[in-house]
Amino acid sequence: MIPRNPDGEHRIADKIGTGPFPGNYSNPCNIHEGRFFMKLKFAFISTCALAMLSSLIIGGWASHADAQVSVKGVVKFEGTPPKGARIDMSQDPLCAKANSNPPTTEEVVVGTDGGLANVVVYVSEGLTSHDFQPPQQPAVLEQKGCQYRPHVIAIQANQKVNIVNSDETTHNIHPTPNNNREWNMSQPHGVPLEHSFAREEIAIPVKCNVHPWMKGYIAVFKHPYFVVTDKSGSFELKNLPPGTYTITAWQEKLGTQSQKVTVTAGKEATVDFTFKQ
Q: In the chain, how many domains are there?
């Protein structure tokens, strides 16, 4: 039984607690109003927490990106550049017809300023992470003028290589690796061919069983820090995290050279190489 007050009225509201929000909770509208403000307060706190977390994550990514640096340099040839030997393609008239000028071998290609082309420059030591996924974009190795173009390519392990035959004649691509599966396949003009290599190897010779003068190389890496020089000899290894690394330059005929370099956040490092016979 509800007790009466001296005025003889039932004071139900006095028996109900006031809670965290002011108001008369005997009124159902006031109860719903209190619940609404509690939900609003919770939503506000949650939004602030998410904003702070997002700021920390984005800030962390930005800091990581800012910390990444490049190693730049030039590969030069010292001395009188050797001349490429003339290639006799008369055994296949379609190959001879495809070249308006007599083709030459590309074992050592030097630019006008002494830059050395077709040198693979890469990080050989110092990486702490080895969890690198291959690029989705395939590399391309073209057979044009009955020569491999480019003469040297570099890819990541398990990256696809699109092999293109732009010549009117039929080729037979034959890589001869030491650390990967050997294969050879015939490829008529215009027929697509795709392949990949599972393990690191620097570098895999590639020949053509139909045309013995055709030679090229495929360098395979387990990380993305590599580049092949053009005739300027210049190179840039991008997006390296700060640390101490061994940078190696490989050339098919002149061998390899290595240098250590320490890179710090916000500062580019420079490494140059000079080859001679």
A: 2
